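ok trying again, last paste got cut off:
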Amino acid sequence: MSSLRPVPALSILAALLCAACSQAPDSTPPTVKAVAPIEDATLEIADRAALDDMLAAHRGNVVLVDYWSTSCVPCVEKLPAVLALQKELRDRGLRVITLSMDDPDAAAEIQAFLRERGAAGRHLISKFGSSPKSLEEFEIDLIPHYRLYNRAGELVETFEPGPDAPPLEFSDIQAAVERLL
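nice, full thing came through this time. structure:
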């Protein structure tokens, strides 16, 4: 298992953005089986237009977008469950898009990180990296952040931690996905 070297700007941004980092992880994390990837994981540098294009390409499927960073502990803890959910429900029409808020200079390390966790298919990394511009570009406030789109491509639910919000439970995301399938 490779270890990622911290990126100073990312560490600072992660401390500001990851409100859930101070919260305890899910008390009952989902069971994740190690599964061979369906296809190789690729990582593409992206802006909002690239994300919108990918969402449009997946119309007809339920799509879960996972905004994350390697410096965000809850993001990293939930990523294997997100990837396992995609593999489990792919045949029923679930597609997952992961969008890393790590610096694009670390793209090779992020791609290796995803592969080690059994990721398959296309994944994105923000062209703006760990800067506040990433949050602006993708219209999010905190990470981890999840958006769920129905088969018509409409945003139907957002999952985001907040200072006054209860801890973000993966089981809530999973239940919402199941309702849409």
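cool. The two ends are 34 Å apart (CA to CA). The chain is about 35% helix and 20% strand.
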